[in-house]
Specification:
Blueprint lengths: L1 H14 L5 H24 L10 H23 L7 H21 L4 H22 L2 H51 L4 E5 L10 H7 L3 H4 L4 H6 L2 H4 L4 H12 L3 E10 L2 E13 L5 E10 L1 H15 L9 H18 L3 E9 L1 H8 L1 H18 L4 E7 L2 E6 L7 H13 L3 E3 L2 E3 L2 E9 L6 H17 L5 E3 L2 H17 L8 E10 L5 E12 L3 E3 L1 H11 L2 H16 L7 E5 L2 H4 L4 H12 L6 E6 L2 H19 L2 E7 L6 H6 L4 E4 L1 H8 L3 H16 L3 E5 L4 H10 L3 E3 L9 H15 L1
């Protein structure tokens, strides 16, 4: 830019009195603009030696040089017409200085120099010819030819030097790579072989790694030493074949894992190498570094195993099962067959885990996995999904009934007794299956649909196999919508309480009411308790719903006579909450109800979730003055231990035993007699559920039950109707 400025001053000095100042000013303005444009282009090309020049950048730079050249053609073609030959030669001298500067300084961009030289030189020569100065024109043309030749040769020299420099940099990079690997990767030794792959320049550490003296290694075959005893048989690892190919093809390689045999022991080495080329460009062998990575390899294999296998059972985990199912689906698509996925869940396993501890549960899972392995053939693979859930992939399930047959064998096998630590234990299995691609075209769809089928099998009581049906999707969607509505039921004031009376067996007066929650949804209408209560427990919505029920029941009980209690059912999810006792205190405080008028009803199943936590929570409630009733005794996991450890006030006999005793079932009759006798000895009361007529009431009364509950004395009713019972009793007494 400085050179252009000086040349521009020369033009102004020579033609100041010859050319119009306006014309000179316009030309100078154009020159400044052109120089600024080319400067802008050059600044964008800063560091171009480290990047690839784009076609757009090339055209922009060429255009900028052309514009500058055309601006300098104006003095030689227009201004020169107003002056003498001496003025033209003075001008050409200034332009020649610019040309020589381009040749010397911008050797890496010869095209720009050629464009500038050609345009300005042709313009000056043409002007000389027009003025009749033929020797001057010839001199200018000769100068153009000399400069063009010099520019091309200078560029060629520059490019040759840069290519040589790049080659040296590449070789230096290879050496640096080997040294860096030697230092950073803690390589143990150097190795070198000749053109026949024989060891040369043995490193002492290399000899130590091979377990042989230096003199035995020098000149021996590199590959034979690595193969060990397997060299004779030719049965060596594929990694050695890969190394042989690299050496044969004279390819650079880095971090190549090689399985070698050293003194009969299998090891893993990591090798890096590069061909050796002498000063005459002749290949003379290979040189590289290496290290023993056996321990790291074993650790990596162990990590890979843990990532794909379950440590407890040794079965494939969820990740590997997903991969196996994906392969099975590809196989089915390729050969137009069917594959299947079975998802199974153990029945009653939670009871074993909670009652006997996780160690016994883990041993049972290990035995379950052994039985599953025995049932798998070459066409199936089983794995553990997590917890007590397992999955089975059947690669080819085209045979009719093959999926159901395998599921039945699984259920039968897993239902057999288990002997663990002196305990004879029983669990069952529920199985859900989905067939691809009929029931799903992706892994995710098959997993989801088999899970829906398993959910149906569990709903049917367990120890069942259910195949996926499209209706299951409808049920799942219905359940999802029902759950969404249930989450807003309380805030929409859709919940209400009904009360069923419990009467004294002798005088048939009401002694308590059982509070029963009802849900009348705006979206779904009336939803039965058997439908929404299990859903609330699964989603833990039972906790806020249960709190609301307890508060409303206590508030309503304040409207009854002081001797009448209210019974509230409590689920296991509520009991394991740390603040359950606070919930009870809050309900009593908010309503003003005496604690002895609140009875908490629980079932035996709560002790299977976390017996210690449940018992502690109930003990806190009893300490407040509330009573606790054991509901549905005899239908679940009955244990006298519950009655011995906790002071129940009432044992409720399930309606199935009541109906059975009335119909003459000796077993039901014996159970009721036993429960009544046991309750009397423990100073507990008994309540018979499900009494529907006078004959049943009289029969139960004779068996010794203290309280009776059933449709004969009243169905679940709204709070207003429950109050009317006391009005009628008062009138009857009057």
């Amino acid at each position: 830019m400085i050179a252009h400025a000086i040349a521009a001053l020369v033009v102004g000095w020579v033609y100041w009195n010859l050319v119009s100042p306006v014309l000179l000013g316009v030309w100078l303005f154009c020159l400044v603009g052109a120089i600024s444009f080319i400067g802008h282009c050059d600044r964008k090309l800063a560091g171009a030696e480290n990047t690839r020049l784009t076609q757009e950048e090339f055209y922009r730079r060429t255009t900028a040089v052309t514009v500058v050249s055309l601006v300098w053609c104006v003095p030689t073609s227009i201004f020169a017409l107003y002056g003498t030959l001496a003025d033209l030669l003075t001008l050409w001298t200034a332009i020649s200085a610019l040309i020589v500067g381009l040749v010397l300084i911008v050797a890496s961009a010869p095209l720009g120099t050629l464009i500038f030289t050609s345009l300005t030189g042709i313009s000056a020569a043409a002007t000389c010819l027009f003025l009749g100065e033929y020797p001057a024109a010839a001199m200018i043309v000769f100068f153009i030819l000399v400069v063009t030749t010099g520019t091309i040769e200078s560029a060629r020299t520059y490019m040759t030097a840069r290519i040589a420099e790049a080659g040296m940099a590449e070789k230096s990079e290879v050496v640096s790579l080997l040294l860096r690997e030697f230092e950073e990767n803690q390589a143990d030794w150097l190795w070198q072989v000749d053109t026949k792959k024989r060891i040369r320049s043995v490193s002492p550490r290399f000899a130590f790694a091979l377990g042989k003296p230096l003199e035995e290694i020098e000149g021996n075959s590199f590959l034979q030493l690595l193969a060990g005893d397997s060299w004779e048989s030719g049965q060596f690892s594929p990694s050695l074949h890969e190394l042989a190919e690299k050496l044969k093809n004279r390819e650079n390689f880095s971090n190549l894992m090689i399985q070698v045999t050293i003194n009969g022991r299998s090891c893993w080495w990591e090798l890096s190498g590069t061909p050796i080329i002498d000063e005459r460009d002749v290949y003379v062998g290979f040189r590289g570094v290496g290290s023993d990575v056996t321990e790291q390899r074993e650790s990596s294999e162990k990590i890979a195993y843990l990532a794909r296998y379950d440590t407890l059972t040794g079965l494939p985990n969820r990740l590997m099962l997903n991969e196996a199912l994906r392969d099975a689906m590809l196989y089915a698509k390729q050969w137009r067959t069917r594959c299947a996925f079975l998802m199974l869940d153990l029945d009653r396993f939670k009871a074993v885990n909670d009652s006997l501890g996780h160690q016994v549960g883990d041993k049972m899972l290990a035995k379950v996995s052994e039985r599953l392995k025995e049932l798998m053939g070459e066409n199936a693979i089983c794995g553990r999904l997590g917890g007590d859930e397992f999955g089975i992939v059947i690669r080819d399930a085209s045979a009719k009934g093959s999926v159901d047959a395998l599921a039945r064998r699984i259920i039968e096998s897993l239902s057999q007794p288990y002997d663990i630590d002196g305990n004879t234990l029983y669990v069952g299995a529920s199985v859900g299956s989905a067939v691809g691609p009929r029931d799903g075209k992706t892994v995710e769809e098959l997993l989801r649909n088999s899970d829906l089928a398993l959910y149906r099998a569990k709903d049917e009581g367990g120890s069942e196999h259910c195949q996926y049906e499209p209706t299951l999707h409808v049920h799942a969607e219905e359940r999802r919508k029902l759950e969404a509505s249930l989450r807003h039921a309380l805030e929409r004031d859709e919940m209400s309480l009904n009360f069923q009376p419990v009467v004294d067996a002798n005088d048939e007066t009401v002694v308590s009411f059982e509070a029963l929650v009802r849900w009348n949804s705006e979206e779904h209408g009336f939803v039965g308790p058997d439908k929404f209560i299990p859903l609330a427990e699964d989603t833990r919505l039972i906790i806020p719903i249960g709190t609301w029920v307890m508060e409303q029941a206590c508030i309503e009980a304040c409207n009854w006579p002081s001797h009448v209690r209210v019974a509230v059912n409590v689920s296991g999810e509520q009991l394991i909450e740390p603040d359950f006792a606070s919930t009870v205190i809050g309900a009593l405080s908010k309503s003003g109800l005496e604690a002895n008028r609140l009875e908490i009803e629980v079932t035996e199943s709560i002790f299977l979730r976390d017996a210690n936590v449940a018992r502690a929570a109930l003990e806190q409630v009893i300490a407040l003055g509330c009573t606790v009733a054991l509901d549905d005794f005899g239908t679940g996991y009955s244990s006298l231990g519950y009655l011995r450890k906790l002071s129940f006030s009432t044992i409720k006999v399930d309606r199935s035993f009541v109906q059975g005793a009335v119909q003459g079932s000796a077993e039901s009759l014996a159970i009721i007699n036993a429960v009544v006798a046991m309750a009397e000895s423990l100073e507990m009361s008994t309540t018979a559920e499900g009494v529907e007529n006078a004959e049943e009431a009289e029969f139960i009364r004779k068996l010794g039950c203290k309280k009776i509950q059933g449709y004969y004395f009243g169905r679940p009713m709204p709070a207003h109707d429950a109050r009317q019972i006391f009005v009628r009793e008062g009138l009857r007494r009057a």
